[in-house]
Amino acid sequence: MRAFLRVAAPLLVLSAPAFGQGGPSPALIGRGRILATAADCVACHTVEGQPAFAGGKAIATPFGTIHAPNITPDRETGIGAWSDAEFLRALHDGVGRAGEQLYPAFPYVQYTRLSDADVLAIKAYLFSLPPVRRTAPANDMLFPFGYRPLLRVWKWINFTPGRFAPEPGRGGEYNRGRYLAEALGHCNECHTPRTLTQGLDMSRNLAGGIVEGWQAFNITPDPVSGIGRWSREDIVTYLSSGRLPGRAVAGGPMGEVVGHSLRFLPREDLSAIAAYLEGQKPLRNPGDTAPRSGYGRPDPDRLSFSLGGNGLPTGRGLYVAACASCHGLDGRGTASVPGRPGFPGLVGNSALGAARADNAVLAIIHGVPARGGRGESFMPAFGAASRIGNALDDAQIALVANYVRAQFGNAAGSPVDATSVRRLRLENGGRSPLVVGVWAGMALIAGLAILFAARLVRRRARGNGAERMP
């Protein structure tokens, strides 16, 4: 994996052609594999339990559900018939093989910065894989977003194509980290807030965003809202393992990024990403007064099982019954022993210190899967019936979330109720009524505006033609 430094750094990209006389070389394919891992292609283009890169995964967006395409070298259902130029145009310009505009769920806004050599190395790797004949389901887009030519307007507002250029006055490590984080890893896509048109608000770069209901937290070097109190070693530890004891555990989309991509990168590249993050402008989020990891205290009552006045378990009672065996009765976690991995503590966990408990609620619903390391712990999903027992309903999840927030995190944060849990379930599936309503309304306004403008242009054209008639 150390070869990654020689293939990802923009100033050190090899100038060898993508294909030699006998096809791509093993070195080029290996380089492409590493680049594809850093870009986390497998996360979007693979359905769990199905062949890698065969497509079909549903990606929820405010505009509808997009199904990632097959990118194996099958000539009919995949990309096996694509030329180098067509592959470059897709990643650099967001245009498909047939000339169709691609939805920006495919992060060509960031991939446009990749060098030609790196893009073609990724193509060489993908073409070395076994072809899989599998057609992805059709997209399910809200009207009128299924009409792809409208994406030209979105691109005009939000997309500037162009290759990566090193930032003057910055060292090689910073610029390598910038290439890894912005072009390949596309960190901005999740950790930067969106504008009204769903483009990236670069005035708040890396100050935090929302991805399928999950909060992608502020990762600027602000000491309160961001990671300004984290050391370089802290950042590397978190990126490589998804855990930083006493501060954070990666779940949801970030957990997938660690599991599929970051944990495979060499330490030098993770350190370069950390150097890039440390060099960003510190941005404070409104209302933040203390670091998210600065809240909470252990629960001193290690014995009682709490029941409410109606005889049903309270939030603490549910925690004792469902959570304490791993996270500890006092919330400090449990140490690893031979044959059993340890489990993280909840005191100081950044998800519980946030003003909103969205990530904590979604972690209870969906769990936190293991990253793939040997003997690694995981959190089961409590939002659906499984081998651990019956599912917790929305009201019970709210009780648990409120207890762990009040005891181990930010007690002053917004309370959780069954309605907010239900809302998060919908947002995580891409069908939040609020989001759908807002964007449907905007789509209607935009459509009427386009029709009005078109009619006005036609009338003027007819008037000018009449004036020129003899």
Automatic annotation (TrEMBL):
Positions with a binding annotation for heme c 1: C41, C44, H45
Chain positions recorded as heme c 3 binding sites: C323, C326, H327
Residue segments, region Disordered: 281-302
Domain of life: Bacteria
Cofactor(s) needed by this chain: heme c
GO cellular component: plasma membrane
Signal sequence annotation: 1-20
Compartment(s) where it occurs, according to its Swiss-Prot or TrEMBL record: Cell membrane
Co-factor binding comment: Binds 3 heme c groups covalently per subunit.
Main location: membrane
Annotated ranges, domain Cytochrome c: 27-130, 172-281, 310-408
Transmembrane segments: 434-454
Residues binding heme c 2, per UniProt: C187, C190, H191
Keywords, alphabetical: Cell membrane, Heme, Iron, Membrane, Metal-binding, Repeat, Signal, Transmembrane, Transmembrane helix
A Pfam family that the UniProt record links to this protein: Cytochrom_C
Entry GO MF terms: electron transfer activity; heme binding; iron ion binding; oxidoreductase activity, acting on CH-OH group of donors
PANTHER family reported for this sequence: ALCOHOL DEHYDROGENASE CYTOCHROME C SUBUNIT, BLL4482 PROTEIN-RELATED
Protein name (record): Cytochrome c
Species whose genome carries this gene: Novosphingobium flavum
Taxon lineage: Bacteria, Pseudomonadati, Pseudomonadota, Alphaproteobacteria, Sphingomonadales
